[in-house]
Amino acid sequence: MNYTSLWILLSSVAMLCLGQGLNGSLVSLAADQSGFGTDVTGFVMAGYSAGMLLSTWVAPRLVKSVGHERTFAGLASIVSTAVLLFPLFVEPVFWFLLRVVVGLCVSGMYIVCESWLNSAASNENRGRMMSLYMIVTYGALGLGQLLLNVSDPSGYVRFIIVSCLLSMALVPLTLLPSEAPNVEGARTIAIADIWRASPLAVVGVIACGLGQSAFFGLGIIFGLAKGLQIYQVSLMMALPPLGVILSQYPIGWVSDRIDRRTIIMLLSLVSAVIAAITLAGGYYLSRLLLISLITAFGVISLPIYSLAVAHANDHLRKDQALGASAKLVLLYGIGSILGPIIAGTLMRNLGHNGFLIFMIVVHSALAIVALWRKWRSPDYRKAQAKDVMTVSPISTPANPPLLQD
């Protein structure tokens, strides 16, 4: 991928994430203000993840049928319309169904972008390319949170802003010259194949789905329960993804040079420790310190997803990139369906600290799995391009065995 195509793609991603960053917190805030309750709000927010699961079946077929650009454009048009329907009828089941549509379209757009990047990347630069992608993604998601401060007495204005931003995501990819990857010969891949290649990647993506969906879906309710004002909550939710701009690329650079499992283990462990410190601080934490700890948690935990994706693609062939992206989003979706529901239930039964308890459990478990994989396979060798690209599955009767992590 040349730099022009890369930045055109990232420009569309930025507009997509600006809109999605505002939309996720906006729906959660509106549900809370409408008196849905944390468990019902968790159910509504989980609709996005149900749509995400559908996108893993729909998006790859659309890409193979009409290509990357047309798939992206069609999904963006649908989702920009769907978000305008939220304020028309404030009812949990209706909002759940709208979240399914939003999840299907937005996740499909992410699948398009991630398969595009992974098809163009090599094992030597994948960590850095994914880091650039995640920097743009989280930076735009963070800025989108700040749009919660836009005055909206009617309840429609911020939803209109989301629709406009999602529509604008169409412009770079559809009106500027870009170099889309060739999908001819793209192969499907089973989750079992990804598991054989990298068990940690499978567990890591599911854990990220659990943690990140709960973080972005219920973090705003956690902040309000801690006594923060709306502008402070928007800042608390904006700073973690914005902070990833500083942490993501160095983490990706290091992961291209040493065992990615080590980095995943350390990031997960530190994330669990920060959540535990926040829990132990309780009401003794000042608002500034609370926002600082949540920011640190996000800066450390959010890059784990890109490491898990890069780790999986280290051990897969390029013709499997599209199928692998869909399956990884499927696994993330499974986790993200359960994340808001479990965290919301914990918050209802244990109070707002159930949010932090959930984060501690998820990230501690991931750190343990990463340590277990290092213990099981201590002589780690990162896959090289020559290891996974020399034999074409199209020209041979059997696929070569996938490398183990």
How would you portray this structure in words?
- The protein has helices spanning 3-33, 38-66, 68-82, 92-120, 126-146, 157-168, 170-175, 191-197, 199-225, 230-255, 260-281, 287-301, 304-313, 321-350, 354-376, 385-389.
- Helix 3 packs antiparallel against helix 6 and helix 4 (92-120) packs antiparallel against helix 14.
- The protein has a single domain, classed as Growth Hormone, Chain: A (Up-down Bundle), CATH 1.20.1250.20.
- The chain is built from 16 helices and no strands.
- The radius of gyration is 20 Å and the shape is globular.
- It starts with a helix and ends in a 16-residue tail after the last helix.
- The longest helix has 31 residues, at 3-33.
- Residues 383-405 have low confidence and may be disordered.
- With 405 residues, it is an all-alpha fold.
How would you summarize this macromolecular structure in one to three sentences?
This protein has 405 residues and is mainly alpha-helical. Helices cover 76% and strands 0% of the residues.
Whole-angstrom Rg: 20 Å
The CATH topology name reads Growth Hormone, Chain: A
What level of helicity do the residues show? over 70%
Number of domains: 1
In oligomeric terms, what are we looking at? single chain
The CATH architecture category equals: Up-down Bundle
Order of helices and strands: HHHHHHHHHHHHHHHH
What are the segments in which pLDDT stays under 50 over at least 5 consecutive residues? Answer: 383-405
Q: Structural class of the secondary elements?
A: mainly alpha
Largest sheet: none
* Number of separate strands: 0
Overall shape: globular
What distance separates the N and C termini? 27 Å
Query: What's the CATH H-level superfamily name?
Result: MFS general substrate transporter like domains
Q: Averaged pLDDT, please? A: 82
